Amino acid sequence: MEKSAKLVLAAFGAAGVAVLLSGRSRDRGTDGRRPRWQVVTVNRPVEEVAPAGRPPEPLAALGDAVRTRVRPAPGGRGTELAARPGDGTRGRARLARTMGRHPEQTVATALREAKQLLEVGEVTTVEGQPAGRRTATGTLLRSAAHRSRGRLPR
Amino acid sequence: MRALCWTGVNELTVERVPDPRILNRHDIIVEVTLSSTCGSDLHLLGGYIPAMSAGDIIGHEFLGTVVETGPDVRRHRVGDRVVVCSIIGCGRCWYCEQGLWSLCDNSNTTPGVPDLVYGSNPAGIFGYSHAMGGYAGSHAEYVRVPFADQGAFSVPEGLSDEAAVFASDAVPTGWMGADLAGVRPGDVVAVWGCGGVGQMAARAAMLLGAERVIAIDRLPERLEMTRRHIGAETIDYSTQDVLGELIERTGGRGPDVCIEAVGMEAHGEGVQYHYDRAKQQVRLASDRISALREAIHACRKGGTVSVLGVFGGLADKFPIGAVMNKGLTLRTGQQHGQRYIPDLLERMDRGEIRTAHLLTHLLPLDEGPRGYAMFKDKTDGCVRAVLRPGG
């Protein structure tokens, strides 16, 4: 996520500032090296989320650029679906080619979209809805807000 | 179509904008008959919830007629008169299945914003900023309603538009405040705020069996309205000592349930109010919580404080010591309307819950800015200004 966008969000409250200033990267695992798994819980059974072990779309389309993992969620909450950029330079290079400069953001978006497709059959959107005259500041804020889907990589 | 747009802090303009269209398969398009101002809009207007963008159409409490349905809509047809829950819920995620509709996982299209500030994301809300999904609101001739099978409800024939519109938000929000607090027969319930939501919370508490309901405000017309239409006792905090009155009226115990229906721009008396206001103006705190503090202070040991007023960020001098040492329970949340509205419409139809009196000013859409000014400044006895886009 871009700096300007973070600043706009931070204006929302000091809680945001505190999170941003904590300085610890949340993208890394506890060993500090590999990218951390990003996870969503999908309110569907494992066999529906990953039939025959195949990850759901749009994660499947990313191929070996991402690693995925599923397991049943406790308490009958469905399935924990996890993904992270693939190991090694090949995975990351492919991810960069298919997904631009922010692979973790792309993984987060793909996870959220997979959850939505499985739970409601489509990705909810507000693109194409009416609005009055827009301004430059507002456009910056909106693009920041709508670009960040899923739990944000920081 | 014409729509009432937020164009800057305390600035609203009626603009000509494109008509909404079906964007998701579960959408319907509703021709708006009535769309109400709500106290929570004032926080957007005043810039206290900063994720607003010039051109955003506001409004979230509305009723209208279905004019188009998406291919996956099953429960509604063109021509249906529907009231729509202000909170958008998918009905399929774990939260919706638990009845926690305002915590829906799938309806907020901008989850990254609240995730950053709150650690997770609540549901989308019509016309309620780019932290809550960035959905176009209902102060317009037409509005797109996502997940219509879950959030739109047919209105009983005998119920007027003017009464039914409040089944969108004020009635279920008030009901939830009493329901989550577990109001039981014999309880004494105090309600801070005699706006639409506070009055509905007071009525809900009575219907759930409360023995006494005491509502608190400072505006004579709202206090009178609450006594006459709701049947609750009142306290005028501008002339009476709230804590003293409550202690005296509850045999020294304090109310079993305290419902806060005021929110982040609480008005109050004395030093505390000016201190909160000063901190909010320089952005050292985002929320003023004087009513909430008083509710916590007043509540009996082991009682429940139910927070219905909208808060956005951080508050100062939150009395956690009173909460902890008195063993209080806090219940809160945006409303889970989908779980309550069908039952509430029936109760309204039977005359158990009366709402039409809340509508004090019916205005055409073009007079939206004036309606909000009256509503905000509480002039001319305004409780709710309701817009009628059809003129």
What does this structure look like?
- The complex is a heterodimer of chains A (154) and B (391).
- The N terminus of chain A is likely disordered.
- In chain A, strands 1-3-2 form a three-stranded antiparallel β-sheet.
- Chain A has six helices and three strands.
- In chain A, a hairpin with a 6-residue loop joins strand 2 and strand 3.
- Chain A has 154 residues and is of the alpha+beta class.
- In chain A, helix 1 crosses helix 6.
- Chain B is an alpha/beta fold and 391 residues long.
- Chain B has two domains: 222 residues, Quinone Oxidoreductase, Chain A, domain 1; 163 residues, 3-Layer(aba) Sandwich (Rossmann fold).
- Chain B is built from 14 helices and 18 strands.
- The model of chain B has no long low-confidence stretch (mean pLDDT 95).
- The chains are: A alpha+beta (154), B alpha/beta (391).
- Chains A and B meet through helix 2, helix 5 and helix 6 of A and strand 1, strand 4 and helix 3 of B.
Content of β-strand of chain B: 15-25%
CATH superfamily label of the largest domain in chain B: Medium-chain alcohol dehydrogenases, catalytic domain
Integer count of domains of chain A: 1
Radius of gyration from the alpha-carbon trace of chain A, in angstroms: 17 Å
What's the main sheet of chain A like? 3 strands, antiparallel
CATH architecture of the largest domain in chain B: Alpha-Beta Complex
Main β-sheet, spatial strand arrangement of chain A: 1-3-2
**Helix content estimate of chain B:** 25-40%
Q: Work out the number of β strands of chain A.
A: 3
List the helices and strands and how they pair.
The complex is a heterodimer of chains A (154) and B (391).
Chain A (H helix, E strand, L loop, with lengths): L2 H8 L3 H8 L16 E5 L3 H4 L16 E7 L6 E7 L2 H12 L3 H18 L15 H12 L7
Antiparallel strand pairs in A: 1-3, 2-3
Helix pairs in contact in A: 1-6
Chain B lengths: L1 E7 L2 E6 L11 E9 L2 H7 L10 E2 L3 E9 L11 E4 L2 E2 L5 H4 L14 H7 L5 E2 L16 E4 L2 H4 E3 L6 H4 L5 H11 L7 E5 L3 H12 L4 E6 L2 H11 L2 E4 L5 H8 L7 E4 L9 H12 L8 H9 L5 E4 L12 H6 L3 E4 L4 H13 L9 E6 L3 H10 L6 E5 L3
Parallel strand pairs in B: 11-12, 11-14, 12-13, 14-15, 15-16, 17-18
Antiparallel strand pairs in B: 1-2, 1-4, 3-5, 3-9, 3-18, 5-6, 6-10, 7-8
